[in-house]
Amino acid sequence: MPGKYIYLLADLKTGDIMEEIPLTTVTFGETINGATPFTASAPMQTGHITPGQLVHGFSWDKMQQANIKPGARLLHVLRNGKPMYSGLLYKAQADPLSRTMNLSGADHLSYMDRRRLDTTQSFAAADQFQIVRDLVDEMQKNTYGDLGIQVTTGSSGVNRTRKFEASERWRFGDALNGIAGQSDGFDYTMKASGSVAAGIVPTLTLANRLGGNSNNWVLQLGKNCESLSYTEDATSMANAYTVLGNGNSDERPLYTAKNAGSLNTYPQFDEVRNAESDDTETANLKTEAYAYLAAYQTPVRTAVIRIKPDDPDIKFGAVEVGDSVRFIASYGWLEFDELFRIMQMNITIDQNGKENVVVTLTQYDSTVN
């Protein structure tokens, strides 16, 4: 059953909800390890509207439109009363001829890319989730930069020693990506939690691996997939991965991990990177090298699918990004029946209220974060 959507405009700094606004087409979603944008369209009106009067099917007067202030507003998306998305309004574009206003922005992860660290932060053998929490606290310690972002509790079980120099003016988003992207890293996403009554809260959700195996979705080409784009990409493939330790010239320790199965099928593709810390222990370099090898030893397989959310094999709202779903395809080059992992989900609500869902899947590997 299609959901009922409402859209709320809020003050970015205080979080106070200002009003419900009429939007005709809205696209939003959720992404693993990245910010998710939104776009929306709204009708314009040149004069004041008598309460209840309809303009393009909505009541929205000129004084209400004055509340649109890019850089100072939030858009909340609620489905059946539950927060689904919250994003910063960055841009508004008016088209008087079509009497339409176009809005766009991105979730609170985008704000972490707009802020720079100005105080050196050092961490010694600290859990990587606690490092993230401390960095978010640092970002929001200034009243002017406190957007009320919360971070989930718990620990990852992985300790790291890191130092972020103030002189380098790190983006907080780059610091987050730098930690998450290491071997034994983690997944993160931004969610809208809470309620209208209690307050809608942007929550940075951390997990060693988001999602799980889901029996709620079975995607099948020719049945519940309205469109499909499938890609296998060996551009960044590496089946011989070297990690360099701390040291100079010929004395510098290193370890190269190779995958025999991949090398029997493909020629050797090399990649090299520095160790994640000033490490000289071969055992640690070996662990890192094999962790990166696992992620890059074969071509990346990606499927972008527009699904039919009203299909009985699609339980909309029952899966989240990170979940693995069964994907079946038998058409020419495409021949598989296996698990894929949801990396991104985009939802478009059209002017008739219909939900259109596009998911981005990658091959499932239980050993890779």
Please describe the structure with a list of short key phrases separated by commas or semicolons.
single chain; 369 residues; mainly beta; 13-stranded mixed sheet; 3-stranded mixed sheet; globular
Rg from alpha-carbon coordinates: 23 Å
Distance, first to last CA: 34 Å
Order of helices and strands: EEEEHEEEHEHEEHEEEEEEHEHEEEE
The biggest sheet amounts to:
13 strands, mixed
Strand content: 35-45%
What is the number of E strands?
Answer: 21
Contiguous runs where pLDDT drops below 50 for at least 5 residues: 47-59
Structural class: mainly beta
Indicate the overall shape.
globular
How many separate helices? Answer: 6
Helix content: 10-25%
The overall pLDDT average reads 88
Layout of secondary structure:
Blueprint: E1 5-11, E2 17-20, E3 25-31, E4 37-43, H1 62-65, E5 73-79, E6 82-95, E7 100-107, H2 109-112, E8 121-127, H3 128-139, E9 150-151, E10 159-164, H4 172-180, E11 187-195, E12 199-207, E13 213-220, E14 225-233, E15 240-244, E16 254-258, H5 260-265, E17 270-274, H6 282-296, E18 300-307, E19 324-331, E20 334-349, E21 355-363
Parallel strand pairs: 9-12, 13-19, 15-17
Antiparallel strand pairs: 1-2, 1-5, 3-4, 3-20, 4-7, 5-6, 6-7, 8-10, 11-12, 14-18, 15-16, 18-21, 19-20, 20-21
Helix pairs in contact: 3-4
